[in-house]
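Checklist before submission:
- one chain only
- standard amino acids only
- sequence pasted in full

Submission:
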Amino acid sequence: MGPLDDIRIIEISEGESGPHAGMFFSDYGAEVIRIVPPGAPSDRDKPGFVVWDRGKKSLALDLESPKGVEVLLRLLERCDALLVALQPGEADRMRFSYESVQQQLPHIIYCSLTGYDLHGPENDRPFHDGLVQAKSGFMTNNWGIGAGEQQPGPKRMGFAAPSYASALYACFGILTALYIRNETGIGQHINISAHTAALSMTRWNWAEQQDSERPAGRGIFGVWICGDGEYQWTHTGARGSFDRYMKVFGMEEYMASAPEPMPWSADLNREVRGKVAALMKTKPRADWVRLFNEADVPNHPVLYPGDAFEDEQARAVDMVVAVEDPLLGWLEQVGIPIKFEKTPGGVDMPAPLKGQHTNAVLRKIGYSQDEVALLRSEGIVA
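Returned file contents:
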């Protein structure tokens, strides 16, 4: 039982943002039907989709054909929202644009998940997460926090952060629009783009960078290579932790409370970082964890994704769940982050096989077995 048990959503998506948004809805009880082209390879062969498609139903339907679009509209009569994450112009070309759907089904919440906003000058630009990271300032947000002595410079995020952010905004937008529809009876169009989602997450860094009059404060943070080749994250932002950090390394002359403290500058920052990087390589990570903890300095081992699943905190709050996949067997997957007391939701089904629910979905909206067989013989469904 989940908080969205009565919600029905159709997902038509490529890439990562649409499947992510659909997964969030299905995790919390919504019936999510993902429509896939009958002749296309299964997304199950792509990394991630065995998780992102969990809990959904799979309908193999040819939306290139008028008959396929008729099936879609008939299906939408009993649904709440249509989530479309395709390249620019694809929905229009296949005749299920917002305008055409809204004319027949004014109750529908139609969510367009795009790379760039539909109303901007780049609305027809194909989407790629790396391009959005470069355009939105994401890569330079990571400037200079590499592994110790590495040269600073722009860095691509290790996961598709703009896609993931736009998926979260899509969920918020659809839920808000559903609330409005419940009050007014009116459906509407929502446009969320990966570009605007990424921009919204960089706002705090801009605020800090524009404060050019603020004097530079003492601070050392980043990822360091330890003597055993493992990585450690440290940060001196907590009150008094810079001086405690310097004591750990025997570098008391750099402390803010030193009898004659050195004026902090970019050059001094580089000097201290260089010494810290060299010292970090003299001991294994476990020793540094102990020393930093004893000194009350914020730090943590840098874990790999698989290591993070073994973390005691993650398992204690059910952020690791076991799912039996029909092809891969039992898999450990990431759990669901929002905890509801009375309607918890959960991961009830694995990612479906392609077209696994075609027959059941069509029968549920009134197609007879003979009609489904005819659509299948014509290649409209699979």
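Reviewer check: The first helix runs from residue 17 to 27.
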